[in-house]
Write a structure and sequence with these properties.
Blueprint (H helix, E strand, L loop, with lengths): L1 H32 L1 E2 L5 H10 L8 E8 L3 H13 L6 E7 L4 H8 L3 E5 L1 H8 L3 E2 L1 E6 L2 E6 L12 H9 L9 E2 L1 E2 L3
Parallel strand pairs: 2-3, 3-4
Antiparallel strand pairs: 1-8, 2-6, 5-9, 6-7
Length: 183
């Protein structure tokens, strides 16, 4: 009888451990597997861009919303560093975090960086998750959405998006996979 109780106690402990581990891993990775909502108020977003002093000059302008604590956003920053500013475009990075060697390198490549607290990005722009791409062509929004066609993908599709906008093709918004800003 005693060994039977011991066996059930071990099984119970194992089940508690498995459930706890599953919950923990779900909380840590769930945001990278689910798509977030895009900002609801584009007017507010565009007006705030004007207020922070970087409005839509030129024909093509890309705004990259990123957060330093998001692995997807960090992968995106590395990709932007590898390619530089897209030829003929102006590109701004609204960065939830502080200046670093990585962001200074991007500034050296011609990216305009706007540093903000993550909560400020959410409050001022209505952006709730990153990385988010906003493309403005001649003052009108041509694209708003994510960079990736599937979760946990580090191959940014921004070049394809830009090329399709230049060719005046319709670009469907990609899902917004990444990290929530409501920390």
């Amino acid at each position: 009888m005693h060994s039977n109780m011991k066996k059930w106690a071990h099984i119970a402990i194992l089940l508690i451990w498995a459930v706890s581990l599953t919950i923990y891993l779900s909380l840590k990775t769930g945001g990278h597997l689910l798509s977030f909502h895009q900002p609801d108020d584009l007017t507010k977003l565009l007006e705030t861009l004007e207020e922070v002093g970087h409005g839509m000059q030129g024909e093509f302008h890309a705004y990259h919303f990123v957060y330093e604590q998001c692995s997807c956003a960090n992968a995106l920053l590395s990709a932007l560093n590898d390619r530089g500013v897209y030829p003929g475009w102006q590109e701004s990075i609204i960065f939830g975090g502080t200046k670093s060697d990585k962001t200074e390198a991007l500034e050296g490549l011609g990216f305009h960086l706007i540093y903000m607290e993550p909560k400020q990005i959410e409050r001022d722009f209505g952006v709730k998750a990153v990385p988010l791409l906003l493309v403005v062509k001649e003052g009108a929004v041509s694209y708003i959405g994510g960079y990736y066609d599937r979760p946990a993908n580090y191959q940014s599709l921004d070049r394809d998006i830009f090329a399709r906008i230049i060719n005046e093709e319709t670009v469907e918004s990609l899902p917004l996979y990444g990290c929530a800003l409501d920390l």
